[in-house]
Amino acid sequence: MPIFLALYQVIRKIPAYIPQVKAVYMQVVTAIAGQAGAIDAINKIGKGLKSSYVTSLASDATKNQIIDTLNYFNADAWHKLAKAIPSAADVINTSSTHIIGMNDFFAGINVSQTPGFHPSIYWLIPILAALFQYLSAKTMKQPELDGNNPAAGMTKSMTVMMPLMSLYFCLVTPAGLGIYWVTSALFQCLQQVIINKYMDNADIDALVAKNKEKAAKKKAKGQKTFMERLMDTSAKADAAKEEIENPSARKTIKQIASINTKKIAGPEGTGAEDYANLDSVDISKLGEIGKKAYLVSQYEKEHGHTRGGKK
């Protein structure tokens, strides 16, 4: 949702943000620039679209503002514009053919058009999006909760709110996004139906036994199960947090170097666990903590320090 809100204007005004698309519209804008009555013609045609997103342009409108309005033009509007400005008709017809072909989906639906709040065939998109979103939520099996449980009320409200949100967003954004929303919700709904059917016919005890058998085989081979690996990772994270929060538990430079350099051999083959051999360690092979240990050791050497105090 945050990403959607951040990209809302980009989705609504694609030509203003996509250079390749803007270039096609710019051909029209360049052709009609300075033409007498061009802005008035665009405003008149725009009003006929009955779109709440088409606003009247000022006489000194910028090229980007003109493109924002032309973005909502359908085939009929482009035809009217070419007729209103005969001197630029060839450019308008050529560019509009490209634009319409680029945005056509099927059944005359233009993916750049916004359904809006005026009744049209485009209303099918938000309606279907809301319907499939609702069906998807209803087909998803939910745990049985007591009516007094706050989670039950939240689940019920989300079942209604999500479809309503889909309905609204598909009304105020281009049809292309709505079509994606419909397809996604439909796929999710069908997927959930298939999963439900499979789980209804599945033998849960057999599935549990099968998973136990797999886990036993992995253990026999010395491999850890997913949960064991997850627990190990969690334990390491807790240990690292403890080292940060508890100074007394922190390792010495020598211990850190020994762990993180992974015993990279020094010049005499004694290994990096020997603090003195940190000078010859290949720092590119160290981990982050190992690198820090190395830098500290170099600092101590250059400034005549030892861990027991000054030399």
TrEMBL record:
Gene Ontology terms describing biological process: protein insertion into membrane
Localisation per UniProt entry: Membrane
PANTHER family: CYTOCHROME C OXIDASE ASSEMBLY PROTEIN COX18, MITOCHONDRIAL, OXA1
Name under which the protein is recorded: Membrane insertase YidC/Oxa/ALB C-terminal domain-containing protein
GO cellular component, one term: plasma membrane
UniProt-recorded Gene Ontology molecular function terms: membrane insertase activity
Protein keywords: Membrane, Transmembrane, Transmembrane helix
Organism: Anaerobutyricum hallii
InterPro entries reported for this sequence: YidC/ALB3/OXA1/COX18, YidC/Oxa/ALB_C
Transmembrane annotation, as ranges: 158-182
Family: Belongs to the OXA1/ALB3/YidC family.
Chief location: membrane
Membrane topology qualifier: Multi-pass membrane protein
